[in-house]
Automatic annotation (TrEMBL):
Protein name: Large ribosomal subunit protein uL22c
Gene Ontology molecular function, alphabetical: rRNA binding; structural constituent of ribosome
Family affiliation: Belongs to the universal ribosomal protein uL22 family.
Species of origin: Bolbitis laxireticulata
Subunit structure: Part of the 50S ribosomal subunit.
Alphabetical list of NCBIfam families matching this protein: rplV_bact
Pfam families membership: Ribosomal_L22
Localisation per UniProt entry: Plastid, Chloroplast
Its job: This protein binds specifically to 23S rRNA. The globular domain of the protein is located near the polypeptide exit tunnel on the outside of the subunit, while an extended beta-hairpin is found that lines the wall of the exit tunnel in the center of the 70S ribosome.
Alphabetized UniProt keyword annotations: Chloroplast, Plastid, Ribonucleoprotein, Ribosomal protein, RNA-binding, rRNA-binding
GO cellular-component term (any): chloroplast
Length: 124
């Protein structure tokens, strides 16, 4: 049993103002949450979604932060936490009949990926 007072070292990568719906990003994030670093890099490579490249870049950034700031080995890392948060909407207006304007709301979100050296995710 591990000590509850033991502090866990986590490195994070943050992607802000991403012009994509949070629902579309969550379907990728849910697959990599709790995976090892190597598996989390390989999984988005073979998914047919537009945001997979962005998620891969955030995983690489979190691993580089862990290596640079804390001296952790990349092969020992796991994606301990992955969050997608709603942000504001990018507002545009579409001209409609009789001089009216129809609002178009384009979603923006924020992605946080935390990696740590001790495993706290799902077991496969």
């Amino acid at each position: 049993m591990k000590d509850k007072n033991q502090s866990k070292i986590e490195a994070r990568a943050l992607g802000r103002n991403i012009r994509m719906s949070p629902i579309k990003i969550r379907r990728i994030i849910d697959r990599i949450r709790g995976c090892s670093y190597g598996k989390a890099l390989v999984l988005p490579e073979f998914m047919p979604h537009k945001t997979c490249y962005l998620i891969s870049q955030l995983i690489l950034s979190a691993a580089a932060n862990a290596n640079t700031n804390f001296g952790l080995n990349k092969s020992d890392l796991f994606v301990s936490e992955a969050l997608v948060e709603n942000s504001t909407y990018l507002r545009r207006f579409r001209p409609r009949a009789q001089g009216r304007g129809y609002p178009i709301k384009k979603p923006i979100c924020k992605v946080i990926i935390k990696s740590s050296s001790n495993f706290v995710g799902k077991v496969e």
